[in-house]
Amino acid sequence: MRIYSKAGVLLLTAALVLMLLTGTALADVIRVKPVGDGSVEVRWSDNDAEKLILVPKTGEDYQADLAEYGSILIDTEGKNRIELNDMAPGQSYWVLTLNSGTGSSTPYPYKASSPADFSEWKTPPRVSGFSLREKNRAGIYATVDSFQAAALEDTENDSSYGLKWQLEYPMLRKPRSFLWQGVVTDPTGIGTVVMAGKRELSTDVDYVSNDFMPLDAYFSWLLEQRGTVPAGTYTFSIYWDGQRVLSAAFDVR
């Protein structure tokens, strides 16, 4: 979910939904492969493709998945190759291209590599202080036990929501940089990359980070794509180079 990206997220309009459901075949995606740091390279055969589209894949019916889960659209910038941080580890996708004049390509199935626990620690990381935070109209963040679906779906509600945690990093075996991905998995099992970016660590000593991830854009995206914010248990995970560093559950009621 390109909240963090230079390209920016484009949500599907009704016209684009209709084109994706009924449009003619354009350029087939010719290759989707991991590039070693949790990123995925996608190549296709037609420079006229305007958008690259990711749709969560749960079965063999692309149209049903598109109607149920929505999609993420990414600008191709006139290229026929792009490197993505938008695929959640272990999540399956339909990948296709779109041209507003000629239609969409044949959906290409791809499953991102299943995650393993991060293995470069001399000792395991320690997570503490994981909490749900809600900012009220006075601009004050308070810790809450759960988020309320009715409030998240209320477009007149001007509260803000996020997650806060503390992560104590032990020494690595060697200094290096990582692709950092923050992924939220909803109660239906669909994981979405909410934030991503490179993080540099040259660890001669242990250190502690206090992190916060806003969720307003994610919940708004769910509401626009699916018409609801599903109630149930969500999972928040952090991945470094596609490997899991931490995972924690929270509830929307």
Key features of this structure:
Immunoglobulin-like; 44% strand; 16 strands; 5-stranded antiparallel beta sheet; disordered N terminus; 4 helices; mainly beta; 253 residues
Describe the structure.
By secondary structure, the protein is mostly beta strands. Helices cover 13% and strands 44% of the residues. It contains 4 helices and 16 strands. The model is unreliable at 1-15 (pLDDT under 50).
Q: How many domains comprise the coordinates? A: 2
CATH topology of the largest domain: Immunoglobulin-like
Top CATH class of the largest domain? Mainly Beta
Instruction: State which percent range the strand residues make up.
Output: 35-45%
Shape: globular
